[in-house]
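Page header: ASSEMBLY MODEL / two components / 551 residues total.
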Amino acid sequence: MSERLDTVSVVEAPEGVELSLRVAGPSARPLAFLIDFLVRAAIFSALSWMLLFGGVGQALYLLSIFTVEWFYPVLFELFWHGQTPGKRALGLAVVRDDGTPVGWSASVLRNFLRVVDFLPGLYGVGIVSAGASREFKRIGDHVAGTVVIHVGRSSSALELPDVPPLAPRVPLTQEEQAALLEFGARSRTWTKARAEELAGELEPLTEAVGSEGRQRVLGMARWIEGAR
Amino acid sequence: MKREPFIAARKPRWKRLESMLAALSPGARAEVPERELAQLPRLYRQVCQDLALAQRRMYGRELVSRLNAMALRGREQLYRAPTRYLRQWIEFVAAGFPRLVREEWRLFWICSVLFVVPLVGVAVMAHERPDLLYSVLDPESLENIESMYAPSESLSAKRDADRNVAMFAFYIRNNVGIDFQIFASGLVFGIGAILSLIYNGVHFGAIVGHFLAIGYETQLFPFVVGHSSWELVAMVIAAVAGMRLGSLLVAPGRRSRARALVEDAPRCLKLLVGAALMTTLAAFIEGFWSAQPLPVSVKYGFGAAMWMLVIVYLLLGGRRRAA
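Prediction written out in full:
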């Protein structure tokens, strides 16, 4: 498939199938980080009441701060299926390069090495490293062998729009059939005008433009799908 | 087979797997009965097969991506490594960690020298030429440390039980945090770890030299002797871990640098975890023992025993079963 064009990383599973990981890019990850930063700040201020309770309170406070400082992402990634609150909000998750879940050592490595990624300030090294890597890996990801991917967004319907099936006039190759199916599945995410414009490109096949052209492309998709 | 009948025939199966995966996901409350759960591997393999077919026959991105997501989630559930944490930890502390440290004996001695030489050098210098001291420590922090250990003020009087706990936590956050930082900065070709070692050596050396010069050592030494063994050796080991990490970039051997890092970084991390445990023990001693108002001889005796214990542990730990 079109993995060279897309930010998709393909791994081969022992079950004999290629799984594609949709690698998360440079817009989603900083946002997730920002959310986590705010969550952490909220935790810090929420814990400050402990300071009112003398030495033991202070001790608990310092230990909690220490834990949050170093282990906030680690604990979430381990017990929340690779997601910190920020990552979950944006539908991201950390997995190993082969798509299996991160373990202790991978998670600790990638998060402790934020110290290096943060250099010389504001994740300078991390941004350069991510930009130079096809899978947007910062240094910590390289060392731990992890990758941040998009997960979720699986609710969209499988059914094509309900239009009468229409047999194409000429036999279509597999790629062409796939393109028509793709059109059918995606058409509901476009405006009508956009769908008609795209369907207009297929005028030689449909012998129609505008609304009618769109209807015919969808009909052929239905026909390829098996509807009669 | 056409797309539609393909979907229709498999949909019940996918629905079952999807609901099972949803029930197994972190936020879910639902319980999956054991007999259902036993079906998971089979359902997962079937979805993998369906995915392969859908990819091959180009049934459309929508379907493929849905099956792909399902397969990934199934994989996540199935390939979660079963772990027996407690046993692993005991094994690691009793045998694995000292063995690892012994394997790195060369780096261990290099790091020790990088720490001890500046310490002794600066201590002697500060003792002989006290004026030079201020080029290392700024007067304010020196005054701070001085007042902490001034003979007129009994150290223990300032420390009640409550305060001990707070100091324990403070030491953990501070010292274990330093271990982590030394480790991570070591990735930069080991430079970070080397600089940290020298810096800490100079810092401690300056304090020791200064206290010797002004005659406060009767306060300082009994305080630090108890936890010094665990704390200093742990710092050196954290640096060893960082240096080893950096060395994977400098000299990866017959592998690519990326490969070397991915393969050996977990081993470096184990060293760091051991160092962090040692530092935690040191913080425990520092918080609850070091400030106790006990005779100096007891303090020194305890300190000597701790040094012996560290040496014996690292030299002999896990030896018998290694054979």
